[in-house]
Design goal:
The chain is mainly beta and 302 residues long. It has 3 helices and 24 strands. 10% of the residues lie in helices and 46% in strands. The model is unreliable at 1-26 and 38-53 (pLDDT under 50).
């Protein structure tokens, strides 16, 4: 019951505050133009490889981690979980401590993906549980099947909250990994391209979040650093507003996320339609918080 409640709580958190995958899977109202202090050029759609038809995918039973008295085994993959695809896990704790197991920095088919997992296992015990991929992440990125996954585990002392073990990324391939043709949709208007980072404005999401309207953003991290992308100094139609946006993108991966505006901010400023948005992006190394770039002002017109 504790793990069920944890999963439900995680779902609520993901739906409300998830970064990297919070955008809806609905239609997008394109930005008519995006200009920056460097260039007003618009990004051209990349050449897209054809997707494979969705088919049943499986994984072999695989030991993902066996270290420092803990063992995590992937038992199976279920694509039709109630909240999204699930990896069924067997977790064994012989560490001498009561531990909590969570997942971080998950990727599916090269895209960052939101996950739900928090499992308490007392010393000397085992637990069967699931690592759940939020369906909204798949919809936002256009993922209809799973070829490969990369996951890292964050394990900490349940009572003291002290980190016990942080793993490197662990790759898990499915039965279609060798034949899958990867697709990355970078179409939209280029907002920034430099320092190994590419940011594309795809447009306004037609379906509002529970907080208010949002702008869909595509990001590529082609650097050798894990990064966080945030916004600064955001205005709509000339009025300063708050924006919810903070997205982690590990090295070599892509992400789709949304810049979300509070409906209350729009109402207070009598904004009934989003016509012009100005903002800048703050990009930093999420391991040491060192700034990578603060972009020029980006002007977006709808």
């Amino acid at each position: 019951m504790k793990r069920v409640l944890a999963a439900i709580l995680s779902l609520v958190i993901v739906m409300s505050f998830a970064a990297c995958g919070d955008s809806s899977g609905g239609e997008i109202k394109d930005a008519s133009s995006v200009t920056t202090g460097n260039s007003g050029a618009e990004a051209q759609p990349s050449e897209q490889a054809g997707k494979t038809e969705p088919e049943e995918v499986t994984i072999p039973e695989t030991v993902l981690l066996e270290e420092s008295g803990v063992k995590i085994t992937a038992k199976s993959l279920e694509m039709d979980g109630i909240f999204g695809p699930e990896i069924k896990l067997l977790i064994e704790n012989n560490s001498g401590k009561d531990l909590t197991f969570q997942c971080k920095n998950a990727c599916v088919n090269g895209y960052m993906a939101e996950t739900m997992m928090s499992v308490d296992v007392v010393n000397g015990k085992k637990a069967n549980d699931s690592l759940i991929f939020a369906a909204s992440s798949f919809e936002a990125c256009g993922i209809d099947t799973i070829a490969d996954m990369e996951i890292a585990f964050h394990i900490f002392d349940t009572a003291e909250w002290e980190t016990y073990l942080d793993t490197d990324a662990i790759q898990l391939k499915t039965s279609i990994a060798d034949t899958y043709e990867y697709t990355f949709d970078d179409s939209g208007s280029l907002a920034y391209d430099g320092n190994g980072v590419k940011i594309v404005i795809k447009g306004l999401a037609e379906d509002e979040s529970i907080f208010g309207p949002s702008i869909v953003v595509y990001m590529e991290n082609n650097s050798d650093k894990d990064i966080t992308v945030q916004t600064r100094d955001v205005s709509i139609n000339g009025f300063m507003v708050n924006a919810m946006f903070s997205c982690n993108v590990v090295a070599g991966k892509k992400a789709v996320d949304t810049i979300t505006f509070m409906e209350s901010d729009l109402s207070e400023n009598d904004i009934t339609a989003i016509n012009d948005v100005e903002l800048s992006f703050h990009v930093f190394d999420f391991e040491n918080w060192e700034t990578i770039v603060d972009t020029e002002v980006v002007n977006i017109t709808f």
